[in-house]
Amino acid sequence: MVHDEELIRKDSVYCSYGDTVHYAEPPKIFRGCEGSFLYDSSETPYLDLQMWYSAASFGYRNPRLSEALKKQIDTLPQLACQYLHEEKVLLAEKICLANTERFREKGRIQFNVGGAQAIEDALKLVRNCKGKNLMFAFMGSYHGRTLGASAITSSYRYRRRYGHFSDRAQFVPYPYCFRCYYGKKQPDCDLYCVSQFEKLFETEYHSVIDTKAKESEYAAFFVEPIQATGGYVVPPRSYFKRLKKALDNWGILLVDDEIQMGIYRTGKLWAIENFGVNPDIIAFGKALTNGLNPLSGIWAKEDLINPTVFPPGSTHSTFSSNPLGTSLALEVMAMLEEKDYERKVLESGDYFLALLKDLQRKHREIGDVDGLGLALRVEICGSDGFTPNRELADKMFLEGLKGTLDYKGSKCGLILDIGGYYKNVFTLAPSLHIARGEMEMAVELLDQLISKCKKA
Amino acid sequence: MVHDEELIRKDSVYCSYGDTVHYAEPPKIFRGCEGSFLYDSSETPYLDLQMWYSAASFGYRNPRLSEALKKQIDTLPQLACQYLHEEKVLLAEKICLANTERFREKGRIQFNVGGAQAIEDALKLVRNCKGKNLMFAFMGSYHGRTLGASAITSSYRYRRRYGHFSDRAQFVPYPYCFRCYYGKKQPDCDLYCVSQFEKLFETEYHSVIDTKAKESEYAAFFVEPIQATGGYVVPPRSYFKRLKKALDNWGILLVDDEIQMGIYRTGKLWAIENFGVNPDIIAFGKALTNGLNPLSGIWAKEDLINPTVFPPGSTHSTFSSNPLGTSLALEVMAMLEEKDYERKVLESGDYFLALLKDLQRKHREIGDVDGLGLALRVEICGSDGFTPNRELADKMFLEGLKGTLDYKGSKCGLILDIGGYYKNVFTLAPSLHIARGEMEMAVELLDQLISKCKKA
Amino acid sequence: MVHDEELIRKDSVYCSYGDTVHYAEPPKIFRGCEGSFLYDSSETPYLDLQMWYSAASFGYRNPRLSEALKKQIDTLPQLACQYLHEEKVLLAEKICLANTERFREKGRIQFNVGGAQAIEDALKLVRNCKGKNLMFAFMGSYHGRTLGASAITSSYRYRRRYGHFSDRAQFVPYPYCFRCYYGKKQPDCDLYCVSQFEKLFETEYHSVIDTKAKESEYAAFFVEPIQATGGYVVPPRSYFKRLKKALDNWGILLVDDEIQMGIYRTGKLWAIENFGVNPDIIAFGKALTNGLNPLSGIWAKEDLINPTVFPPGSTHSTFSSNPLGTSLALEVMAMLEEKDYERKVLESGDYFLALLKDLQRKHREIGDVDGLGLALRVEICGSDGFTPNRELADKMFLEGLKGTLDYKGSKCGLILDIGGYYKNVFTLAPSLHIARGEMEMAVELLDQLISKCKKA
Amino acid sequence: MVHDEELIRKDSVYCSYGDTVHYAEPPKIFRGCEGSFLYDSSETPYLDLQMWYSAASFGYRNPRLSEALKKQIDTLPQLACQYLHEEKVLLAEKICLANTERFREKGRIQFNVGGAQAIEDALKLVRNCKGKNLMFAFMGSYHGRTLGASAITSSYRYRRRYGHFSDRAQFVPYPYCFRCYYGKKQPDCDLYCVSQFEKLFETEYHSVIDTKAKESEYAAFFVEPIQATGGYVVPPRSYFKRLKKALDNWGILLVDDEIQMGIYRTGKLWAIENFGVNPDIIAFGKALTNGLNPLSGIWAKEDLINPTVFPPGSTHSTFSSNPLGTSLALEVMAMLEEKDYERKVLESGDYFLALLKDLQRKHREIGDVDGLGLALRVEICGSDGFTPNRELADKMFLEGLKGTLDYKGSKCGLILDIGGYYKNVFTLAPSLHIARGEMEMAVELLDQLISKCKKA
To answer: Are B245 and B228 contacting, i.e. CB atoms less than 8 angstroms apart?
Structure first.
């Protein structure tokens, strides 16, 4: 084992910093993991409330999945994707059947690696079907970091260094009701934000339609049902239904990015199920393999993806349906069928949310606490409970990472992740298997952190 | 085990055809693999001369790598890339040191998943550094299938369905001397193809420079040192040196795509080493993990990638330096240090090439045989030894896939892959560990195939 | 003289319909003009309330300008723009001095032909200065029909046939208070529309800024101070001041399109003067030559256009400062200096507006009447005074064009032009020399038209 | 009259330098013109061999055209283009009939102002018809300076300041045989340059076609039959026929830019007539009004421009078919019908070319002399007769502009224009009415200039 100091020195010499966020300086090194915990070189446990941005939803080193992976290593770990293997096909079938049950729609699966490439495949389907390059997306959205995905990701910071983006999306305010873009208040607002979107289509002079040709300049709307990087923001339950109606009027497709929120993070296979609308395309990834393989993919309605409109060779990648990834995902799907994850996640989510609300009552600096299933948010503010307080959030994050907290007499750390428009939101994505005791521990540690940091 | 027929039926219902090439109809199903062989459901062995487009260069189910992977599964299989783990750093160090030795240049590594995303990262570095979106690339090039990578991949077929590409590259004839674009013959040509490229920079009216500002409209030239999908074409040894000089005159970066040809496929860590030039950026992937993880990455010169010009957060992806991938790659790098792969690959390559040349003498339909290391090409032509004969190549490919060949009394198959501008080239990328007997078997089976198919 | 019917037949065979609007079918043919009147082949006079979209502001066949043009024809009617002629230089001086007086800014003039090309030159200055291609523009905006100008013109109808526009602007709601985009009412709204624009810059997640780099993705805001094609909409007097402040915070340039509203149409040399802000670039054209030559141009602040940043050869066109055009414009500028057009236009405008308000009181179908100087609007609605009534507006337009109205016993016609987001607004741009009697005639004819048409 | 010095001072303060070329420093001022001559403030005559880049082909202050213009000023000088006037329709008819006679094709005319806008209209027709943005154009081409036209103009200098051009053309070597791009010699080359172009379509890997879909990524080829700014280069007579065949195979349109070379400059109405091919679209301008109005336009085949595919409102501009311009053009067309310009121009061209060839024999520095009709080129080289000699050309240009030459005892000047890829070519476009004596004077003055300047 190379010492931490030595690794950090080597990192500073040999590694690009561009592919990380370097929130902590120097970056924290971990050596092991299990369940809800990471371990550093001194074997201190860190309770992780952000399981690799929801990629490791079923707990670190989940034994069943380790076993499945090892089994595949010993049978067919490698195969070019121009040939078929059983796991790929069975996995596609399972996801399709799950979607038919949910949306009463036939569709097909296309695999790839990494969420951004699933988004690229969705873009390709849309461009192929609609013959147009322009998309709607949300302010606060994050869809990945390829050039194509960056174009529909809201933050200009992700584009600024890379010259002109010819396909930049038009970004629409997200229903972030705690800080409504229009200054409205729920439920009096009557979804004013959707009305404003609908207004775009009222006359061609509002810039997006050709009234004569009855055509929109925009081909699809890419949405995260719960905004992830944007701060785990939960929209009003009726929001997407009205949005979808506006889209349907103009033949604009709904692309549902479930990369972070899918696979029961919100208590449903797909987060969009919470909102009662049927997407045209679903992009998924991350937790599908519990982080053991970058397998990602899209499901699309049959008329967008059948071999006549999207024939062989339309797009592919070497590792698209790699056997290790598909066998892992197949095991995950089996787990989901065997156990009532919906009930389990909602129960845990309710319990955790209640504890967090209690905590909020103790600290005015917690401006907002909300959540759906085990996607939870804690927004850190000034003492007015509203002004974004990035400094305090940063301090808490760094303090938790030190591994010097105390829980029932033992040294430990807390892994948080900061998101949100003002970088002041703890976006909590604990293990879907998190125990009650771990949730209590989490809130106790959060309490310690905020108490300590707001004093400083 | 689900029967082949059933799998094929399910595939036709639930799977997109867009992510595969579907050369064989129905697609072939495999159930196992080992060394140089794939196995179908009847346990028939198929000698694989195209190890997953060179992703599984070290043989299927390589025991040492299986072990390394399993070990990592049991320690730290998952970790968000904002935290460090030992294998990532040590792997970056190893690659950087190898490059310093080769090119006398300091540089850094940035990881990602999938070759196309490594290319996207290279595009980002170039655009950041030069402030321009336009690139040169070769006719016959293949750099991946994200929207960004498709823009610099020569075939319009990869773009046609997807609307306007605002960053389309300018494509330059590749030194495919068997079918010279300019109708010249080696070595009399004196690299006329490079002269033609140089001419672009003679006056601003040739469309790529501003003479007054001494500036090129193009930021970088993306090259495959040996064209892969283009048909394993080996350029003249002096080619890249003269090309590089032209690029240096105008500050145009050289980006070296080693995704398929790197990691000793041509007898060198990087194929570009065969040509005596130093690239500015190297993109790699595939064989780095022997196909067990989609880990990819780029190495770039320090001045393009240091944290001042390319700071934290410039780009990233969830799985970019995932622990399973980096631990595998670290083991691969260790293997490369321990054994003299250069000697081994060149010896095997020479032996295989000699056998293929013998075969060529038997069949006029083999128009060209060439290779560098274990990247070999067999170009199938008409009886004039020149006219591309796609039909014959297709027949041989499909016949090999039937698994009905006979080798020393046993039933077997042969896995080939077709590439080339006219889809008439067998691009051979056998296991770097291929045994002499397997090469003999390969040539014997090729002989059977061509003899049988040209009769039909 | 070729008969009307014959001309219409030839037109239908030999002329593209693409370059006209063909509101009237068959198109109306005119044979002569003078002052405020056009004449058809039967010599019927048509009172023109839309003097060639404000190009012939000083009256048809203005004798002084005819004389100036003829004089130049006899001296130096032709000269390549690489050589200088007196009129060009003196004209540039006059406009610059006028602007220094108004804005206390040094600047320079660049000429071109046609308003769209002036807009293209403004785009070039902006792109050169800011290194960015993205612009803001208004919903309802019209800046011309070159590909570059169409990209920043709101209506998708102007782009739909022409494939992907890589530089499409982001369109912001215009302060069209009679139909507020946000449903607010003046003056209670406190310019909510500007607040919404300001909000874009609050966090990078609102999609237009990079907070860290303190940079906006957008280079300039192109505005029409009074929206022309959009329906002669007059914004609140304080609007542009607050908008400009938001732009200044982020270094976004203000480009003022005065092509239709400049040259005293609103009682000021530039319409923007009514709003107390200083633009960075002004584009002008149309009335500058009273429609006798397509001369157009831009004025820009010295730091955007001086020869160091915008050197010789940056852009040009054959006819850019053609002698006939510049001599005409010089004469127009002389006229403007000799007579108090500000007082004259405001007086006439007030008188006309008062008459129109009287008319509004007679007809509920006139939903809105407004104006600034002699840029006036009459919005035709349903009997609720609000629902846009395109049918009625169309009928009135066509009826006026028949030349069968009666004024004091004589047959005559009325030339109107329809604009507005719902194509229900008469945008009135009468001759700046219109007599009181002509205004009375206009309102009388409008009364006849609306009375007759709403009955039908 | 303001003194020259004062004008130059004012120019340096109030005028953008961006819209001129400023070859001479300070710029030359002219005060009058007539026939083939310009006059400066001291009334010195300058023989003009470059009549405003061929805009004033019929001589300065041509009395017949002055008369026609004045007549229109007194009848209908202004009219919005949504209404018809006789001259527009009759002019369109005349051009269409002329084209039907020449190409046996029905078509229609669309007017605009300025050549660049005619090119923009051609781009719009092409994009509308083919649904694609990419074009071929020639190295050395010049099609105008709007953003759209700059994208298909070869020199990067015209784009460099203005950021990313998403629609940049692919530029193909022009048959500039004196300096063949491929180093070939006529006529042995067998049009190798066209063969190279044809090769692009041989396989999809050459980057421009999709073989499966039988579709080209490029929609049209924009050509100047004689390259203008590129140096008045005359291609081999069989060139365009073979090029057109390659285009027809792939449905690529031929757009013929006649803005500088049309209207009998080469002895034909359209220069393309010299090459025996039928274009799909013709763009024209300049000499159509003899420089008295920026009227320009396109003719297109009926199936590209009929009102069904290109309906009313597809594009337009205020001054598109302005009455002064159309009446002038109608008079020009009448002149062309009345007199045998073909014979006249070819006779004068032959005479002038012979005199220039004599001059070439006297001066080794004249590397090439060539021409078609009265489009003539004199390429200035080093003493080897080949190395481009920009310095000598510049000196001659400036010396001619001084007005200090002597012709038969009188002081005079010579107006030249420099073009060509190396800025060493005098591109001669004298008045089509130039007298023999004037041609003799021209050659005598050229002799003086070269003799004097090569000594210095």
So the answer is: no
Q: Is B169 on the interface with A (CB under 8 A)?
A: no
**C·D CB contacts under 8 A:** 387
Calculate the average pLDDT of chain C: 97
* A203 in C contact zone (CB under 8 Å): yes
Closest Cα in chain C, distance from residue B115 (Å): 27
Q: Residue D434 is inside which H or E element, if any?
A: none
CA-to-CA separations, A229 to A23, A179, A232, in angstroms, rounded: 15, 16, 7
Instruction: Give the C-alpha separation, B277 to B238, whole Å.
Output: 10
Q: What does the block give as tokens for C231?
A: 């329906």
Task: Check C199 against A216: CB less than 8 A apart.
Answer: no
pLDDT score of C26 more than 90:
no
Rg over alpha carbons for chain C, rounded to the nearest Å, is 22
**Which candidate in D127, D160, D161, D164 is best for mutational testing of the A interface (most A CBs within 10 A)?**
D164
Identify whether the C-beta of residue D229 lies closer than 8 Å to the C-beta of residue D159. Answer: no
| B74 burial type by CB count under 10 A (0-12 exposed, 13-18 middle, 19+ buried) | exposed
Going by the DSSP 8-state scheme, the letter that residue D427 receives in this structure is E
Q: Which residues of A touch D163 (CB under 8 A)?
A: 164
State the Cα–Cα distance between residues D179 and B202, nearest whole angstrom: 12
CA–CA separation, A60 and B73 (whole Å): 10
* Helix intervals (H) in D200-340: 239-249, 302-305, 323-338
The set of residues, in sequence order, having a beta carbon less than 8 Å from that of A335 and lying 6+ positions away, is: A58, A64
Put simply, whether D189 touches C (Cβ < 8 Å) is no
Q: Does A166 touch chain D (CB under 8 A)?
A: yes
CB contacts, 8 Å: C154 with chain A: 204-207
- pLDDT tens string B35-58: 999 999 999 999 999 999 999 999
Question: Phi, psi at residue C237, to the nearest 5°?
Answer: -60, -30
pLDDT at C21: 72
Could you tell me if C321 and C111 are in contact, meaning their C-beta atoms sit under 8 angstroms apart?
yes
**Cβ pair B154:D211 closer than 8 A:** no
Cβ within 8 Å, pair C84-D110 = no
CB A216 to CB C156 under 8 A? yes
Q: Each residue of A383-415: pLDDT tens digit? A: 999 999 999 999 999 999 999 999 999 999 999
**Nearest to residue D138, comparing CAs of D22, D28, D254, D44?**
D254
In sequence order, what are the beta bridge partners of A233?
A227
Residue C171 touches chain A, beta carbons under 8 Å: yes
Taking CB atoms and an 8 Å limit, are B206 and D154 in contact across chains? Answer: yes
- pLDDT score at C313: 86
> What are C21's two structure tokens?
């609007």
Q: How confident is the model at residue C173 (pLDDT cuts 50, 70, 90)?
A: very high
3-state SS class at C300:
strand
| Per-residue buried b or exposed e for D129-138, using 16+ beta carbons within 10 Å of the residue's own CB | bbebbbbbbb
The answer, for C308 touching chain B at a CB cutoff of 8 Å, is no
Q: Which chains touch A (3 or more CB pairs under 8 A)?
A: B, C, D
- Distance CA(B430)–CA(A379), nearest Å, equals 56
Please check the confidence at residue D412 and state whether its pLDDT lies above 80. yes
Output phi, psi for B139, to 5 deg. -55, 135
Q: What is the DSSP string of A110-168?
A: EEEESHHHHHHHHHHHHHHHHS---EEEETT----SSHHHHHTSS-GGGTGGG---TT-
Spatial contact of B311 and A17, defined as CB atoms under 8 Å apart = yes
Contact C55 D318 (CB under 8 A): yes
Nearest CA in chain C to B162: C164
Residue A108 near chain B (CB below 8 Å): yes
Q: Round to whole Å and give the CA distance between A154 and A170.
A: 9
